[in-house]
Amino acid sequence: MAETGKRQDPFPAFRYEVRIDAIPVGGFSECTGLQLDFEIHDYVEGGVNTHTHKFPTRNKQTNLVLKRGIIDRRLWDWYWAMTRGRVRQRNVTIVLYDHDGVTPVAEWEFERGIPARWIGPQLNATQNSVATETLEIAHHGLRRVR
């Protein structure tokens, strides 16, 4: 008798946690920048007209972008310290959870992150949207832990 396969649904993208130096820093409405790219060098070989050779040169990562409603000053204070010459590198971890919201299924670590950009809320008295802040974090590498 044939065995029934176990259904494997994709994980929801809204069950995640952001930790800075292993400490949860609140809920974020958006987290982008989980991206790595290789720069590719095209080499044209004389006499070969059918293709160009492609060689990977270096790996580069995009900045991590975090958006959330303004709830406290911790992210602002970290950025403001940078403007005063006090550079504090921090490790950032993104944990994605299963459907139950408890079991971690994927985890990414950003090493030696520093705040690169802070964007404050767009205030508009004619709307009833939440005041959000955006923090962009440059880092020295991304690795998947889980």
Automatic annotation (TrEMBL):
GO terms for molecular function: structural molecule activity. This is Phage tail protein. It comes from Candidatus Promineifilum breve. Pfam families: Phage_T4_gp19 (PF06841). Coiled coil: none annotated.
